[in-house]
Write a structure and sequence with these properties.
The complex is a heterodimer of chains A (167) and B (555). Chain A is an alpha+beta fold. Chain A has two domains: 76 residues, ACT domain (Alpha-Beta Plaits, 2-Layer Sandwich), CATH 3.30.70; 71 residues, 2-Layer Sandwich (Alpha-Beta Plaits). Chain A contains four helices and nine strands. In chain A, strand 2 and strand 3 form a beta hairpin. Helix content of chain B is 38%, strand content 17%. Chain B has three domains: 170 residues, Rossmann fold (3-Layer(aba) Sandwich), CATH 3.40.50; 164 residues, Rossmann fold (3-Layer(aba) Sandwich); 169 residues, 3-Layer(aba) Sandwich (Rossmann fold). The radius of gyration of chain B is 24 Å and the shape is globular. Classes of the chains: A alpha+beta (167), B alpha/beta (555). Chains A and B meet through helix 1 and helix 2 of A and loops of B.
């Protein structure tokens, strides 16, 4: 089992995300995160997904994506050759006895307080998936009310771009 | 010229080389039907009894010709009735374009009368589908659908056309018929490596499927077999790709495959797999499948390479082109020892086979064989009769065995036979069972109306034979809901439809019945009484390996 990240450029059309996720569902692929956004051109949307599985499962996922008519480019983004970040918003209970500990933890991770009320505080953290997981784990010592994370946004280092590579 | 959307649909179909379509009209496709009326001297529409029959007919047409089959239906229930037909084509990689009407764009999403999200429903059973957004993009969308249906690994594409688009007007410019996209080519060095692996083998076996037929590589396959001195076997979808009496051909492999073929594949040290996907009916227990062999897998669909089995060498690309390149890198081989083994397997098969002289499935099919011309298409439904057909039918030409392999659709045969008859112009044959025939027999009406010369060989055992066989073997003979106990008089039924029929209970009478059937101008049914406890043998139990093969009843 390995974790891997795949970037996909798809046509920016009605229902494309549905076609992609329908294929994941039908073929039982495990997707751990998925982010979709507009790109530098109106023509394409970019999907970044992380999944885990064997080398064979990874190969299948890429090949099955490749068969979708709306998929234009696919590339596996290797950790060593890419920069990738996730955004986390985490809401924890604001209680006098834990307030300073939460603030210390947030400070050491560089998480920013974006909302502060009598009963709750929302922290924002940007970073690698691993760093975000670690921070969430730390917060479990306190009372987590809600979590929202974006999935990975990832680009390759240097001047390589996804559209130059077709599998 | 300025045309309505509906006219553009029909003009584009004609422009794409389509001169026959199958379908059923309705409210939201009326405009297109009006245009079909207008252009009826350039394009024929075959009206079926049910949209499912139309989809199977378009599928049968496509299988028999290699061209794109076209089916048209209205929105809502018309569209949902196509589903089984589209799924059947999808699982067997048949190029099909389905055109559905839909309610006007402004009404979509409001649950209006006969509105259904057909593109949503067909997402997992089409290569791609479209909702046409404007009359200006209509012609190009249909062209893309044709191109896509036949490109790479073929398959069905659906085009959903809202009513207002059919009514809209725009300028229409004819275009040439779409050509399939150029298929991917494998790198020379990988082909070279594969060739040296093949040359090092002592017991090569060539195994092909529907992908070989899609790629028109039948001749290249035989060249390869000669060069390597290799035996050849196929999957269900490969049947008719090689003449049945070819000395290198061992028949079908798999759950009910020919004994010699399955055993040879099991004993081979190198399996050259062309246009196949190693379905579970082929491999049985994957862990124990072809453990002695290096597998060379050639397919146009990269996702099939290593989906089920891990090949020693995988070549992605058009089967025909890849085999041609492979042949260039190979040198002639001789394998006398291997052929000694194969001949002894063939003998074992002969002696263990069913040689009874009564009205047995084997005798019935072999009698039918005498009546088949090289160009005769034979469609089947699904079940025991299908496997007996696959085992005993004799073919001379490719694309003449028309059968639902992947989805296993009971009810496929009637529509498919009609489509195949229209495609070939030959007196067609449907081999069916009483279970399957009961599912879509309303299409006999279509065959009568359209004077389709069709011999329907009904293997009537009064039970759902294949399920019964499993119940006998694996469910302690609990015949749950497989005894039909119907009182249908098929001879009277055929006459009521306007066709003809006879009943055969003795093998001696079968020739006379077939003579009558083949000299009749419309659909003629032979109600053939088969014992309910006939088995399809050999049988590889589900999930079993070659060690578990059942060759004789009672094994």
């Amino acid at each position: 089992m390995q974790k891997f990240t795949i970037a996909v450029l798809v046509y920016n059309r009605f229902g494309v995300l549905n076609r992609v996720t329908s294929m994941f569902r039908r073929r039982r692929f495990n997707i751990s995160s998925l982010s979709v956004s507009e790109t530098e051109t109106e023509q394409y949307s970019r999907i970044t997904l992380t999944s885990y599985g064997s080398e064979q499962e990874k190969h299948q996922l890429i090949e099955q994506l490749n068969k979708l008519e709306d998929v234009c480019f696919i590339k596996e983004l290797k950790d060593s050759e890419t920069v990738g970040f996730e955004l986390l918003l985490i809401k924890v209970k604001n209680e006098p006895e834990t307030r300073s500990q939460i603030r210390d933890a947030a400070d050491s991770y560089g998480a920013e307080t974006v909302d502060f009320t009598r009963d709750a505080v929302i922290l924002k953290l940007t970073g690698s998936t691993r760093r975000i997981n670690a921070f969430i784990d730390l917060m479990r010592d306190y009372s987590i009310l809600e979590i929202c994370r974006t999935g990975v946004a990832s680009l390759e280092r240097g001047n390589t771009t996804i559209s130059k590579v077709n599998i | 010229m300025m045309l309505s959307g509906a006219d553009i649909v029909v003009r584009t179909l004609i422009e794409q080389g389509c001169n026959v379509v199958f379908g059923y009209p309705g409210g939201q496709i009326l405009n297109v039907y009006d245009s079909l009326y207008k252009y009826s001297d350039e394009i024929t529409h075959i009206l079926t009894a049910h949209e499912q029959g139309a989809a199977h007919a378009a599928d049968g047409y496509a299988r028999a010709t290699g061209k794109v089959g076209v089916v048209i239906s209205t929105s809502g229930p018309g569209a949902t009735n196509l589903i089984t037909g589209i799924a059947t084509a999808y699982l067997d990689s048949v190029p099909l374009v389905a055109i559905t009407g839909n309610v006007a764009s402004t009404l979509i999403g409001s649950d209006s009368f006969q509105e259904i999200d057909i593109t949503g429903i067909t997402l997992p059973i089409t290569k791609h589908n479209y909702v046409v957004g404007s009359v200006e993009e209509l012609a190009d969308t249909i062209r893309s659908a044709f191109k896509l249906a036949m490109s790479g690994r073929p398959g069905p594409v659906l085009v959903d056309i809202p009513k207002n688009i059919q009514m809209g007007k725009c300028e229409y410019e004819p275009a040439p018929p779409a050509a399939a996209e150029e298929r991917l080519r494998e790198k020379d060095e990988r082909i070279e490596k594969t060739a040296s692996c093949i040359l090092s083998s002592e017991r090569p076996f060539i195994y092909f499927g529907g992908g070989l037929i899609s790629s028109h590589a039948e001749e290249e396959l035989l060249q390869l077999a000669e060069l390597l001195d290799a035996p050849v076997g196929c999957s269900l979808m490969g049947i008719s790709g090689v003449p049945s009496d070819h000395p290198r051909f061992l028949g079908m492999q798999g759950m009910h495959g020919h004994y010699a073929c399955s055993m040879a594949m099991h004993k081979a040290d190198c399996i050259i797999a062309l246009g196949v996907r190693f379905n579970d009916r082929v491999t049985g227990n994957r862990e124990k499948f072809a453990t002695n062999a290096k597998i060379i897998h050639i397919d146009v669909d990269g996702s099939e390479l290593s989906k089920i089995v891990t090949p020693a060498h995988a070549l992605r690309g058009d089967v025909k082109e890849t085999v041609v390149k492979l042949i260039e890198k190979l040198s002639p081989k001789k394998h006398p020892e291997w052929w000694k083994k194969i001949d002894s397997l063939k003998n074992e098969e002969k002696t263990s086979g069913d040689n009874r002289d009564s009205l047995t499935p084997r005798r019935v099919i072999e009698t039918l064989n005498k009546y088949l011309k090289p160009n005769t298409p034979v469609a089947t439904d699904v079940g025991q009769h299908q496997m007996w057909s696959a085992q005993y039918l004799s073919f001379k030409r490719s694309r003449r065995f028309i059968s639902s392999g992947g989805l296993g659709t009971m009810g496929f045969g009637m529509g498919a036979a009609i489509g195949a008859q229209i495609a070939t112009g030959e007196h067609a044959v449907l081999v069916t069972g009483d279970g399957s025939f009961g599912m879509c027999l309303q299409e006999v009406a279509t065959a009568v109306t359209n004077n389709i010369p069709l011999v329907i060989l009904l293997m009537n055992n009064g039970v759902l034979g294949m399920v019964r066989q499993w119940q006998t073997l694996f469910f302690d003979k609990h015949y749950s809901n497989t005894v039909l106990d119907r009182k249908t008089d098929f001879v009277q039924l055929m006459k009521a439809f306007g066709g003809d029929a006879t009943r055969v209970t003795d093998i001696k009478d079968l020739d006379a019945a077939l003579d009558a059937a083949f000299s009749y101008s419309g659909p003629y049914l032979i109600d053939c009484a088969i014992d309910k406890d006939e088995f399809v043998l050999p049988m590889l139990p589900p999930g079993g390996s070659m060690d578990d093969i059942i060759v004789k009843a009672g094994d």
